[in-house]
């Protein structure tokens, strides 16, 4: 059992797992922000532009409420809000990943340029030595 716990501790303390956990926590908080943005800001504005509609009230009643049982309905207005949430989150992630990839490619390009600048140029052979080599080669023939 001790070996198992030790292996689990090593796994949990790896950088990738900790980074992923932080990402999940931040993603959850970001999701709540986007949900509030959609339900509290965007949807009321769209509803007002559409003539004062409230999308959360949109539903298809399957069975009306009675004294004994609550109403059974398909609330597609809430579904529309969730779709807007998804679109905004997906677009935000796309923009962030695009920026990260652009920064990474710029960094890689700079590193390649730095390596090219650091690479020693081939030494230039003085003209006298080139002439002496030509003379030597012609004498050998």
Concise synopsis of the structure shown:
This protein is mostly helical. It is built from 4 helices and 2 strands; from the N terminus they run ααββαα. It is elongated, with a radius of gyration of 34 Å.
Model description:
There is one protein chain. With 141 residues, the protein is mostly helical. Helices cover 73% and strands 5% of the residues. It has four helices and two strands, in the order H-H-E-E-H-H. The chain has helices at 2-12, 15-49, 76-118, 127-140; strands at residues 60-63, 72-74. A two-stranded antiparallel ribbon has the order 1-2. Strand 1 and strand 2 form a beta hairpin. Helix 2 (15-49) packs across helix 3. The longest helix is centred in the last third of the chain and has 43 residues, at 76-118. The radius of gyration is 34 Å and the shape is elongated.
Helix and strand arrangement:
Layout: H1 2-12, H2 15-49, E1 60-63, E2 72-74, H3 76-118, H4 127-140
Antiparallel strand pairs: 1-2
Helix pairs in contact: 2-3
CA-to-CA gap between the ends?
82 Å
Helix tally equals 4
Q: Return residue spans where pLDDT drops below 50 for at least 5 consecutive residues.
A: none
Helix and strand succession? HHEEHH
- Radius of gyration over C-alpha positions, nearest whole angstrom: 34 Å
Overall shape: elongated
Tell me the fraction of residues in β-strands, as a range.
under 5%
